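pasting input
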Amino acid sequence: MTRPYEPHDIEEKWQSVWDAEGLYSVTEDPGKPKKYVLEMFPYPSGDIHMGHVRNYSIGDVIARYSTMCGMNVLHPTGWDSFGLPAENAAIKSNTHPAAWTYANIEKQAASFRRMGFSYDWDRRLASSDEEYYRWGQWIFIKFWERGLVERKSSPVNWCPDCKTVLANEQVIGEGVCWRCKSTVVKRELEQWYFKITEYAQELLDDLDELPGWPERVKAMQANWIGRSEGAEVEFTLCGADGEPTDERITVFTTRPDTLFGCTFFLLAPEHPLVHELVHGTEYAPAVIEVVEKAAKETAIDRSSTEKEKVGAFTGRFVVNPVNGEKVPVWVADYVLMEYGTGAVMAVPCGDQRDFEFARTYGLPIPPVVVTEDDPLYEQLRDQPERLVTDVDWEIAHADEGIMVQSGPFTGTPTGKGGEGVRKVIAWLEERGQGRASINFRLRDWLISRQRYWGNPIPAIHCPVCGLVPVPEDQLPVVLPMDVDVTKGETLADHPEFYTTICPVCGGPARRETDTMDTFTCSSWYYLRYCDARNDSAIWEKEKADYWMPVDQYIGGIEHAILHLLYSRFFTKVFRDLGIVDFAEPFTNLLTQGMVKLDGFTMSKSRGNVVPPDEMIERYGADALRAYILFMAPPDKDLEWSQEGLEGMHRFLGRAWRYVAEVVEEPGTGPEGADDDSTKTLRRERHRVVGKVEGDIERFQFNTALSAMMELLNAATDHRRLVKSELRDAVLEREVAETLVLLLAPYVPHMAEELWREVLGHEESVHRVSWPTWDSDAAAAEEVEVAVQVNGKVRARLVVDANASEDVVREAALALPKVAEYIAGKSVRKVVFVPGKLVSIVAN
RNA sequence: GCCCGGGUGGCGGAACAGGCAGACGCGUCGGUCUCAAAAACCGAUGAUGGAAACAUCGUGAGGGUUCAAGUCCCUCCCCGGGCACCA
């Protein structure tokens, strides 16, 4: 009697055997093509969840399949183990963040083992390990040496719940913290930055070099970087007496061609000039009111487009460089200090916001761009001087048209990037009053955090020498373990940590007590895996050059901007430091969808979590792995349902039984039998191998599994319907072995048990080559073609697969059903698609 | 407002380059085995009409191109996501 499929009897056993055999340890082998398969490393938040199961199952199938295809596969794992949740958990359970973190790492490592993931455990790392974070500090020093580190004061995002500042990328949705979802507030603070903006253009341009990335992710990054082409224009400031001074204020505009329509000038409430301009004047009270109101508002209120725009006149004027006109300077709450220069030339006819502001405060709106269908067109087309000072428009419009009331430029066709823009920029450049310019939305990356559980920033504040980097030979700055976060302590509460001496002058100094953003840790871990145990260098260049870039990276869409942008930035800096030879870290990216229950992302707070361990308990890791891949294509969100898992378990049981039966009771028929059932089975074997291969390469794991089910269906039908004396034992065994090989990347334990114990092979199934297939052998000898009359299928016809068009056409026309439908009509046209259909047009 | 996705049976999904819509699985219904149930196995399963053969309809809506449209084009609706007083 066939032994039943019992996942628990085999899964643990093979996990131990694989470990003992070192099955997944790899080294550089120049003789083989390499493949680096990587899933985003987890945060050790507790037990693994279904999202992890999905993410790592996808990676594991790709890694195992690639190995079977003869590649030298690097497939490592580790933990992104610094970060705030550890502190919160420590406070809650009255323990130390390290204790919580490392306990969770062990728990997750055990779960990964139970899932049977093919990791090279020798390369395991955790970003909170001293051997790891010391190199993060080394990177900080190298960045500093290259001028990419800056400490400056500016308005920053502060999360009141996390009690720390955040990078712009970490403020998501409607101005909330990416981690705790609290509303973020602005604070003026001195902080540490990485100058990612120096790489803005390259980060944008190189998106074109990433054909293996989803368009969606590239669009999101391009959006985030936000490049605008335009010009800087200098306006001369007038003094309190109304006469021009030597001082100029620069604005950025994408539409310098509309300068003749500039009738007022705006400053952001935070602009440093504001107080100076109004100090002691009659305008001060109104202006200060606007400034204070803006400061009080949250980012969300402030950025609401619905809101009435508020402003106040400063009493001062600036000179418009193109026409020498003096225009009033206002303070307006809709002007952002963070973007451009914090000062704006207002062109009410062309910009909707300026238009609304002008209407509110009764400022003139002279049109400067008109189209032919505009009622003003005839009147203004040749009009260089300002004649019309207001419009009856409902909304601003100056997208495209000809320039009017624009002095020497009148009549020039214009629009974004058009002729008028180029001409005005050239004119400004000649006079030294402006220049072509590009502005990015991307801001420098704020990397300092006022939290304990992170990588200490290796910097020293010396009262004499200023900011001094910790010398390389004094690294690492070790994170002390005796900080008690349950009492709200940070490094700033520990004098024994921060009291130090200046490495330059030797005088008393204070160590920096902020730690680095955890995203600095995750921006280079993929490189460290190439040489994870190196204690004398961050990595050996030859090793990084062998393995990198990552050939296939897999992770959640939530990192589309954050981690993926930062890692691209780090890699470009590493290239400039000469420690790698490439500019992009991840050649191909797969962003997997979320696993949901009842329409919501599984989360502890919602209480809709399905624990993977329970599923493993019931159906085994293999069924869970295969099922989560079978449910949906990897990039789509999926709705968890348990019934389907039982179905997968059933399928595996059927496959198990089939293989066992083929071994125990092989057919006794002649080799090379050529009855229809045998031929069909032989053909299916080839077709399905080809199908599974193509599907895995296109990440269609669900249809690959469907194809395996089809092969099993064909195989069991054959066994059931064809007598033993007629069944070819060689073919049956070949089908059974093929099925096991196809299943191996998905259900590694079951495949191994069948391969070694049932089919009797010595070697691991995971070291066997992927089965070959032949497209001729996969092709049917006879095909059924559909016969259409006037676009509707009216009959079917079985013909020889390579029958000529004439033969098939005649056969189709001779069908009684066809004759019936074309009776009394004449055949106008016959379309023949080989192997598919014949389409007859008759009227 | 701008930029991406997406909308197919009761459900998850398939249809890769315009060629038979609904593969594969779940569920449901019927059957075999059983004292019974579970498991396993066999069969049916888009809708409507019909005993059946078969016919008609059918991929968010409406138009179009084509012998042929889930797939291409136009107009629009809905859902999800990103960006957004960005000058």
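fyi The first strand of chain A starts at residue 34 and ends at 39.
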